[in-house]
Write a structure and sequence with these properties.
single chain, 5 helices, mainly alpha, elongated
């Protein structure tokens, strides 16, 4: 999922004007954000072709707080450049793990009973025998 320059021109007015000495243009940063969203990789695993991951993350964070990304994705969907129909997210708030799978301490001790004789380790096992089958 990578936007071309002609697709970017249709949504260019959503982005803030770049000022100063900027090493990455908005199209490169947007394509890097789309790459991370599509592949689900960590920011540090972003391929070097996109540029420095920290620069891209910082700009994405600023855009997110300023509402730029909301405008961009709304415009992308409005112009039918990018269609997001279903989004699925699974994390620890929606899927619970059994306590044994979380590394919790197991209750391996024996429960004490009121009868001290019952608390001791059994000395024999009683097996019933059936008699009189002949």
């Amino acid at each position: 999922m990578e936007l071309s320059y002609s697709q970017y021109q249709r949504i260019a007015d959503c982005f803030p004007r770049q000022r100063g000495n900027v090493g990455l243009d908005n199209l490169s940063v947007l394509n890097a954000i789309l790459y991370v969203a599509e592949n689900g990789c960590k920011w540090r695993s972003l391929p070097a072709d996109f540029g420095n991951w920290h620069t891209i993350y910082t700009r994405m964070s600023r855009w997110s707080k300023a509402g730029v990304l909301d405008r961009v994705f709304a415009t992308l969907q409005q112009h039918q450049i990018l269609a997001v129909s279903d989004v699925l997210s699974l994390d620890s708030t929606s899927v619970k793990v059994h306590p044994d799978g979380t590394g919790a301490l197991k209750n391996t001790g024996r429960n004490r009973s009121a009868n001290r004789a019952a608390d001791t380790i059994p000395k024999f096992i009683w097996l019933p025998r059936v008699t009189g089958l002949r």
